[in-house]
Amino acid sequence: MLLLVLTLLATRSKGSTQPSMPPKSSHFLSCGFVNISHWGPLAQEFIEERALDFDIFSVAEHHLPSSQLSRMRRSTSLVHRRCLASAAVGTGRSETGTSGGVAIFPKNHISLLPYGEPRKELHQHGLDFAMCQLRLRGVDINYIQTYLETAVGPKGNLQRLATLAGKILGSRLPFIMVGDFNMTPEELQTTSFLGKVEASIVVASEGQASCRSGRRLDYIVASNVLETALAQVKFTPAPWKTHDMITFKVLRAPREIQARFLVRPTRFATNETSSWQDAQAHFTQP
Questions:
Q1: Other residues' Cβ atoms within 10 Å of the Cβ of residue 21
Q2: 199 occurs within a structural domain
Q3: Mean pLDDT by 10 residues, the chain (286 residues)
Q4: CA-CA to 176 of 20 to 30 Å: which in 10, 67, 123, 161?
């Protein structure tokens, strides 16, 4: 028995003398986004071909009304993805004309937390906004896809930005939002949106335009606590005429991301009639 203990101690001692290997940096999420102009054979083929490249892929301007979203869901289910979609809205110019529409396609194995009713994810018809709450290792975040109205600039999108801010603040979680904002980062900075949601704009490191027109309208907005966790943000050529695809990775382990909260002192229960809530600490966003 003594010999066995000495052998174990010697083995452990030898192991401790070896230099510890630095932890491997691994992208926790590999993400891609592109404005597809409309849902059709080209978009379907692209998603099937790139099915293994991204943990989460999202699109803007699919132009599918609610009655036709099943077409998109059937295609994404074939490549083992869910489809969380916000339907396009009618333009009123014709019987079939639509505007906008966004969708998020996470792989089936990614854990999603429900909003509201069980197994329901938050998306809003007419707002071009889809959001799913991702349960990662050590932290929960919101992944958001949006599309803002074209040709109206920041002033014409103020109401949409206010609604987006309300949805984000209501969830009380850090977020990553990708989208075709139809305004440049400089124009978005002229609004109060970034300050309200405590977020920053993240653009491709090369500083190139996202549109063939030479403008940068597609980018990422992320909570300040998540900004440094994003890396390898770049544009990749895509088979559409107007927009390139944004790809990025989250390199830091999510459990290392920290946020600061105000902690109110616990109110002690002084008698039997004190409520359970009064005996708990209350956490509020700063």
A1: 6
A2: yes
A3: 43 35 54 92 90 90 91 92 88 74 91 60 74 81 92 90 92 93 94 96 78 84 89 87 87 54 45 39 34
A4: 67
Domain residues for the domain of 238 are 29-253
Q: What is the 3-state secondary structure (H, E, C) of 210-255?
A: CECCCCCCEEEEEEHHHHCCEEEEEEECCCCCCECEEEEEECCCHH
Q: Closest Cα to residue 147, out of 249, 226, 59?
A: 59
Identify the CATH number of the domain in which residue 183 sits. Answer: 3.60.10.10
Total-model pTM = 0.77
Query: Which tokens is 68 given?
Result: 């036709």
Strand partners, 86: 102
Residue 187 lies in a domain: yes
145 forms beta bridges with 130, 178
User: CA-to-CA distance for 225 and 231, rounded, in angstroms?
Assistant: 14
